[in-house]
Design goal:
It is built from 3 helices and 9 strands. By secondary structure, the protein is an alpha+beta fold. The N terminus is likely disordered.
């Protein structure tokens, strides 16, 4: 039964990934293509099971309420960095996350969004806490 579940997941996962809404956001005049995760199911799946992420792309998690937010890397094979963002679009903090790790990474205060990018992307683009993210809505 476990084997059948894995086959079903392997067949359906690409459909779920391809169905995601794609949007362009901007940080410090840098345009980024992001997949939107704004339902419980999309937020729970996140970037799990993927082997790659394009260099200038990421996933934007939109939460229903502004609240403390935590992320983890269970079943996630790509090294990522996450920026927690408040309702005004200000980056609260940025955390590095390692593949398959189950420790949690949390926002330092209430967040409305979390942006996952390839690990090191924020540093490479000189994006830091306090910077503004545009085109979130």
């Amino acid at each position: 039964m476990k084997y059948c579940y894995r086959i079903l997941l392997a067949l359906l996962l690409p459909l779920a990934v391809n169905a995601a809404e794609i949007k362009e956001i901007q940080i410090n005049q840098k345009n980024i293509q992001v997949e939107i995760a704004d339902t419980d199911q999309e937020r729970e799946l996140g970037l799990m099971y993927r082997k790659t992420l394009p260099a200038e792309a990421g996933m934007l998690f939109k939460f229903d309420n502004t609240m403390p937010v935590c992320m983890w890397m269970k079943n996630t094979y790509i090294p990522l960095s996450v920026a927690f963002i408040d309702s005004n679009g200000t980056i609260i903090n940025i955390e590095k996350m390692h593949p398959l790790a189950e420790n949690i990474h949390c926002s330092k205060r209430a967040a409305k969004y979390a942006l996952e990018m390839n690990q090191g992307w924020f540093e490479k683009n000189k994006i830091k806490e306090g910077d503004k993210v545009a085109k979130l809505n």
